[in-house]
Amino acid sequence: MSENPQQPHSPQQPEPAPQQPEQAPAYGSPPPGQPPYQGQQQYQGQPQPGPAYGGAPYPPQPLSPSDERMWAVLAQVGPFVVSFVAPLVIWLALKERSRFVEQEAKEALNFQILMVIAQIAAAIITAITFGIGGIVYFAFIAAIVFMILAAVANGKGAPYRYPVNIRFIK
């Protein structure tokens, strides 16, 4: 019998060394055999510093005088579209950035809350008196005039106080 040199366990050929399994590339590195992506930094084995947290936030930037006037006017005329929501949003968003806008938005918000209460009362009076109480709605014409006067005053940078107002929000 002749021995076959191709047999793996033949005495003439040593056994091959066991191969190490290939390791996967490190996270963020390109696949083996490919150059790194443009602009990509190689991983150094140390964690990179992240953004700092917990620092004190910067104080809000104050509004310019023209922005103050614009937001104050919007707080006064916004209720024509969305009732008390406009002065409420303006007051909450800008009260720390401008004392003028804070005061005028609060004034407009208080007036609009009063107007909502007055509208509910007027509707009840009108329903109870079978429509005769509808004359109460003429008071809302005065409210519209006051809102326009407030917007004009705020547009000039002057504060405005409604002649009839309950200050629910101090």
Automatic annotation (TrEMBL):
Domain of life according to the entry: Bacteria
Region (Disordered): 1-61
InterPro entries registered for this protein in UniProt: MamF_MmsF
Keywords: Membrane, Transmembrane, Transmembrane helix
Biased composition (Low complexity): 1-10, 36-47
Localization per Swiss-Prot or TrEMBL: Membrane
Keyword Aminoacyl-tRNA synthetase: no
Residue ranges of the TM segments: 70-94, 109-128, 134-153
Topology class, membrane: Multi-pass membrane protein
Protein's UniProt name: Tic20 family protein
Organism for this UniProt entry: Promicromonospora soli
